[in-house]
Amino acid sequence: MLGLPAQITVALFDLDGVLTTTATLHMGAWRDAFDGFLTARGEAGSRPGENLEPFSDQDYLDHVDGRPRLDGVRAFLASRNIAADDATVEKIADSKNAQFVATLERDGVTPYPGSVRYLEAAREAGLRIAVVTSSKNGAAVLEAAGLSPFIEHRVDGNTIVTENLRGKPAPDSYLRGAELMGVGPEHAAVFEDAISGVQAGAAGQFGYVVGIDRVGGRQAEAMTEAGASVVVTDLDVLLSA
């Protein structure tokens, strides 16, 4: 009834864009932080070969989505041939987080109705649930969205730093989630809206990798290429699979 193979006993959900609509908040905060940096870079005099065009939705999907904050900054700057020291990377990351937190406090968090329906069905069916997110704001987002009661364990950006885990697309955070739940990866399903997260699920050889395509275009195709077992537009689609 959950659209998963019989051997799956644990569900490992990414958070932003999978359970909650906060992915759009992240994208907006990244756009503000990067565009501010790019504008200032241009005014100060760019270096040969640098691309200072404004941050785009595709930049978010290709370089930032699903990755730990500092990794996302470095990946985006590298894509634009921009060299930056650690202090600059941290300044951009801090700017993004400050804007995200301000928006979160002002506007709150909305869970996807289809995701709530799936979580309720999963809990009723006895599927155990954990969240694996690169965000350091994972606890606050879950609490604001009213989803904390569903979650048995949480691996987030703080865990990644404290335990020195590699961020997505490496499988470390998902493997840690499976470990906390007491199962091997073959008995866990990964639920992701980011290409880097789908890649992490495939790299960890998890029993099932569900891609959630909320952007359209060729995202579903890219998820399949990255290793998704199935791609759906919302989680409750799986309830009728």
From TrEMBL:
A Pfam family name for this chain? Hydrolase
Q: Which UniProt keywords apply?
A: Carbohydrate metabolism, Hydrolase, Isomerase, Magnesium, Metal-binding, Phosphoprotein
Q: Which cofactor(s) does the record list?
A: Mg(2+)
Name the EC number(s). Answer: 5.4.2.6
Catalysed reaction equations from the record: beta-D-glucose 1-phosphate = beta-D-glucose 6-phosphate
Q: Which GO terms describe its molecular function?
A: hydrolase activity
Family to which the UniProt record says this protein belongs: Belongs to the HAD-like hydrolase superfamily. CbbY/CbbZ/Gph/YieH family.
Protein name per its UniProtKB record: Beta-phosphoglucomutase
